[in-house]
Each structure stands twice: as C-alpha cells, then as structure tokens.
Structure prediction request, 263 residues.
Amino acid sequence: MERGSAMDDFVLQTYGMTKEFKGFTAVNRVDLNVRRGHIHALIGPNGAGKTTCFNLLTKFLEPTHGRILFNGTDITDEKPAQVARRGIVRSFQISAVFPHLTALQNVRVAMQRGLGTSLHFWRSNRSLDCLNDQAVGILDLVGLKSFAGMAAVEMPYGRKRALEIATTLALDPEVMLLDEPTQGMGHEDVDRVMDLIKRVSANRTILMVEHNMKVVAGISDAITVLARGAVLAEGSYAEVSDDPRVIEAYMGSAANDELVEAL
Ligand SMILES: Nc1ncnc2c1ncn2[C@@H]1O[C@H](COP(=O)(O)OP(=O)(O)O)[C@@H](O)[C@H]1O
Ligand SMILES: [Mg+2]
Prediction:
C-alpha cells in the first residue's frame, strides 16, 4: 500500500480559515498544514487568534469563511461531537476533571465517555478489569501512577494538568489539541509536562498553543506564528525565531518577554 503521498502527510489542514466577530476579524485567511505525527506549535502574541483557531478546529465556533480538512475529508460543516468522534480532541479544562474522583476514576470516566457506555458492556467484570488496566497504563504514561488513588482536588497544580491530559488520552485521539499546557507552572512541572507531551505524541499528532519558548523550542517539529489573526511565519524553531517579522510582532508585548529573551 502506498503511504506518504502528499495527501497522507497532513492530518489537519485549513484553507482560508476566517472568523469574524461583528466585523472584527479574529482569524484571517489562515492556512494551516499539520503533518501527521508532528508536535505542531501555534504561537503568537496575546490576541493573535490562537484560541479562536482551536475553537474553529474543534467546531465550537463556525468559520465565517474557509475550509477545514481532516485526513483529506472536509469537516467544515460538522458538529463538535462528530469532529471529536473522528479523533480531534481538545484537552479539557481543569474544571472538566471531577475534583472528588480519584485520578484513576477520572481516567475511567473519560474512557467510558469515549466508549459510549453500553449496558451489556458493564455487566462483564472482565471488561471492567480490562478498563482498569488501560486506565492505569494511561496514568503511568503521564507519570501519575503513584497518584492513582488521590482525589483530583488534593493533587498539586502541575499534576492536575497532567491528569487533564490523561483524561484526553483516554479517548485515544488521533489529533490532540493542547491550549497552553504549561500555563502557570514552575520550572519542574514545565519540564515534566514537556517530557510527557513528547511521550504521548507517539502515534498521534499534537497541535499546541504554548507561550513557553523553552517548550516550543524543545519539542516542536513545526511552528506556525500568528499575529493579528493571520499567519506571520511558519517553519522550524530556528527558522521562525530568526524571522525579523516574528521578532517585531513580539516586541512591545510585555506578556511575551519570554520569546524576546529566548531569541
Ligand atoms: N467571542 C468573541 N467575540 C468577540 N471577539 C472575540 C471573541 N473571541 C475572541 N475575540 C477576539 O479575537 C481576538 C483573538 O482572540 P484569541 O483567539 O483568544 O487570541 P489568543 O488566544 O491568541 O490570545 C482577540 O482580539 C479577542 O478579543
Ligand atoms: Mg488564547
């Protein structure tokens, strides 16, 4: 079987993706080409349109213009649930993790949701055991095996974010969208989450919005830089960080000192 043709290389593509809010263009004719198996970073100053892009890709927002393709299939007119079923899943916000359930229970609930709980499935104890083993495996993957019995509410912040990623992984997404996975974390947690993203990226594609340039430089295979809703640059970290337009876009934006420092 012939694999790796031009079509096969991209799992997610947008053509002219545009979102207008009452005449304000938040996302402006964005062409994204996310290669299969890549960790692809979407970066840009605050207000550049990154979160809006995520909302468009997961269909929480309707694009004003443009098309979205998943594995070559046009999914522009699909509903969020359809897109999620296809395997494009955005990491839940912390609030979506049940605070009084343990880490293990949270992953199991997420797996059940992914399976669409059928009654006869639950009658079999063997299915339950099998589910447990898989849930423990996922916790292990994100470094939370020793936290399995701890209630989410008791977990330190960085671990809670890792649990959020675990509940997303429970759905076995083909494309995982992470919006600022290291936000608000100290150095140690950032390093740990960086490692875990790298680990969970095996056999899947990751599109992440990330402000921490150490993370972007450390694990991205490709980067798209947005500014004022439009694509400003794309390429490897070396390529985009060397681009004068990128440096200029980040200047004067106090919240983005990190990139300027990193350049
Ligand atoms: N629902 C909305 N209504 C109006 N304007 C919005 C809405 N969502 C986002 N915007 C505007 O679109 C721009 C891009 O926002 P956003 O995608 O959140 O940027 P980023 O995630 O890159 O910081 C911002 O100027 C923001 O104020
Ligand atoms: Mg945002």
